[in-house]
Amino acid sequence: MNAQPFLKMDDIHKSFGSLMVSNGVTLEVEQGEIHALLGENGAGKSVLMSILFGILRPNSGEITYKGQPLHLSSPREARRHRIGMVHQHFMLVPNLTVAENYVLGQGSPLRLIRDMGAVHARIRELSDRYGLDVRPDAVIEDLSVGEQQRVEILKVLFHGVDLLILDEPTAVLTPQETDRLLILMRELVRDGKTIIFISHKLDEVMRVSDRISVMRDCRVVHTTRVMDTDPRELARLMVGRDVLMELPRGRSKPGEVVLSVSNLNVQSELGLPALKNVDLTVRRGEIVGIAGVSGNGQTELALALAGLLPVESGRIELDGQDITGLSPAQINARSFAHVPEDRHKMGILLPLNLAENAILHCHDAAPFARRGMLQKRQIIEHTRSLIRRFRIKTPDETERIGNLSGGNQQKLVVARELARDPDFILVSQLTRGIDIGAIEFILQEMLRQRDAGRAILLISTELEELFAVCDRILVMCHAEILGEVPPDRSRLEEVGLMMAGKKPAVECAQEVATPVPAKSSC
């Protein structure tokens, strides 16, 4: 008889009304392994882990943990069973110290104040043991994204954990920080921990995992040992078809300058320097990438270019005309398209349907409006053409966009912006939170737009995405552009060091490399 698995989630069903989000999922995890969970957006990964961590309750099914039935009603109860989860979006209070975050909600305030010395000692002990370099007295908002990631992981270890769930843990890390995290995961397993690792990055999954389960259509369709598979097979299992693992691209043919940024200085909403003397150009027929760890000025650069953040000094030109200080509406009226960093906050209106979202920028202009009246037939035809061209999975154009997966929402945003036939395309975090199939399609579309003569500025924390499609890559750190590199993967370590603040020894802004077929970020 086979030994009972450390964790078994058996025939788990979960629905919200008529929407099935977990359709008979069965998942087995062995003790002391790193078990990767892969799947497209909407495949059911997050729902399954939310059930395991006590955030959601299943409609039916059984969970067995350490040989005993497990019934959870809250994350607090999950933690009591030594199940911990590090969420993709950090759960930290920014104006508190590391130690204060660790003791929140853990008992009497007076007792905790009295015991803070022991809390600090325990944090230092765990930090030294796992090489996490976490200071108990550091204030969260003063830490980099990578440091906050370490704080989150140590927080789970501080409270005690046997089963650790990591949800997209490398999404905002430099290559060096990612390497350290993967090493840490193996160290935790050697210490007897069990890890469920959710990721879209197949190279990381192959490097660190013992076994892999692939989810599709809200159920587990395949489980395999890592040595018995490869990225191409995993991609096919996730999407249900073969996926291009390399994006063939020809040499770019840059034309005249479309966007010119000179000596740009911008302050953040807190009044701190967010951009310092930034200079860059983007030419017709090229994709220029901006690499960097989140929080180093990329967001403010995009907002300033789109007219959403005031410019302190400097100049922005589009097609040779000064657009510095223009309002978002004035910039929107020009040959300028913007795919924003956060599609929910700035790209779409979740309560509206696809047709309404498809005309957000031009609802008052022909052919979608005439004499103040919306032209329903033209709007429907336009939206249907976008759905067909970008293969957006939806019942029809009347579906509320909030019901679509993240990848299909992003496709609608990209489709709407490109339909404007712009000279310049500003794109922030193009593939964040979307699955491998959508990544493949959208990156191919960026290359098609480049070859059609568009000028594209692509801001991303995903280096694979930048290496896959960019012709030049600028690296930002501490609100400045530290240097420029060609899309050559042999320069990956150099880019990572620049992202961490190390200036290049030799300026390489004039280097030109012949583009080679590059792996996609999937």
Automatic annotation (TrEMBL):
SUPFAM superfamilies: P-loop containing nucleoside triphosphate hydrolases. It holds the Pfam family ABC_tran. Residues 7-242, 259-503 form the ABC transporter domain. GO terms for molecular function: ATP binding. Keywords: ATP-binding, Nucleotide-binding. The keyword Nucleotide-binding applies. The keyword ATP-binding applies. InterPro entries: AAA+_ATPase, ABC_carbohydrate_import_ATPase, ABC_transporter-like_ATP-bd, ABC_transporter-like_CS, P-loop_NTPase. CDD domains: ABC_Carb_Monos_I, ABC_Carb_Monos_II. This is ABC transporter ATP-binding protein.
